[in-house]
């Protein structure tokens, strides 16, 4: 965050990062807080002190340090948000995979049943063929028994 100084007819209006507030108050004790604008109001007699304080703050590197801290803070928040989003997406993927498995299970069962049904049809056809062979053999045997016997001449 930057320090914003707006010149006013009475002096200046200053907005600054909260961590600099105490140092600002020590350097410029006559500054008054304006809660509506959320700025510090200074009279024209404080301008030289303000300039000196601004030079001191800029030379100290505090603004750059605060900017880096703010960036790191945002990065931590961004990371947390990304982790939450990642978790949600992971749950959605698992849910979708579960739906796919549930929809594929009946298909797999249907294929297995079709294969089993075809095998049973083949068994049935073989059993019918065996029965027909057996009935034909039984019929021939019955016909042999019932056939008139030819007398044997000696």
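-> sequence recovered:
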């Amino acid at each position: 965050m930057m320090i914003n100084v707006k010149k006013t007819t009475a002096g200046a209006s200053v907005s600054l990062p909260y961590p600099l507030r105490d140092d600002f108050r020590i350097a410029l004790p006559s500054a008054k807080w304006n809660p509506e604008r959320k700025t510090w109001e200074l009279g024209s007699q404080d301008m030289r002190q303000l300039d000196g304080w601004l030079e001191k703050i800029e030379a100290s590197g505090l603004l750059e340090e605060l900017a880096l801290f703010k960036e790191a803070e945002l990065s931590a928040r961004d990371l947390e948000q990304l982790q939450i989003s990642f978790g949600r997406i992971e749950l959605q993927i698992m849910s979708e995979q579960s739906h796919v498995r549930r929809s594929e299970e009946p298909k797999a069962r249907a294929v297995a049943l079709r294969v089993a049904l075809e095998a049973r049809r083949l068994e049935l056809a073989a059993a019918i063929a065996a029965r027909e062979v057996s009935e034909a053999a039984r019929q021939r045997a019955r016909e042999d028994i019932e056939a008139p016997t030819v007398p044997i001449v000696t």
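The chain is about 70% helix and 10% strand.
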